[in-house]
Amino acid sequence: MLGKWLITEAPRHIKRVEIVFPVVGHSFIPPDHVFAQIVKDLKKREVISSPEQYQEIITQYCKMTALDTIAVLDWKSAYAPIIKPTTSWHVQFQKCKRFFLTRSKTNNLLLQGEQTYKIEINVKKPITKKNKSITILTPVVIPANQLIPKKAKITDVSNLFKKKHYRRQWRDIKTLELYKTVKGRRSYEQRDIDEDTAEIPSDLCKDGFDDINLIVFFNFLCLPDFQCRTTN
Prior knowledge:
Elements: H1 2-8, E1 16-20, H2 30-42, H3 51-58, E2 72-74, H4 75-79, E3 98-103, E4 109-114, E5 125-126, E6 140-142, H5 151-165, H6 177-197, H7 211-221
Antiparallel strand pairs: 1-3, 2-6, 3-4, 4-5
Protein name: (apollo) hypothetical protein
């Protein structure tokens, strides 16, 4: 995402973007205090079954923007055909503490990964696939509140409701409407996939028509100058 911005939208005087991963447990930034207050309040609740309950707690300590009202870009799917998997990068992704993004002479993205906070080896290489450029990366917009979780996650939540908390009556509980909606959204998508991949039966033709004659017949009907004539 930052690479796309640097190459296509950033002012030309911005030459490099640095991404730093802070040391875990040593940030001590202002949001940490807010998070601590929220976690403390959450621990007092034995059961939280709806997003509204989370929102009620969070808004007591800070201003909150509900993400289900915002459309998002599907960067993950857009990256797949253009960016190499991290296992194929010239640096060990998990060991890097800093990344530097710069432009190449061909206006493509170069990445430099460093495993320390102070020393730079300064090896820059592209991370795009062969004959691909970061400029052609165009993520699809996902409408607000239309994200579809993975099937395994839906199954885990359903089993949690049915076996540990609400039994089979969980669908009738009003505060769990969100989960029922999301599960239905997943089922609807699966039906579309099944319909698209369904095999067409091979015995659709009536007796007396073989495959070759049928193809010729339809081609004849599709001719632009074909006219239907009747005889007395």
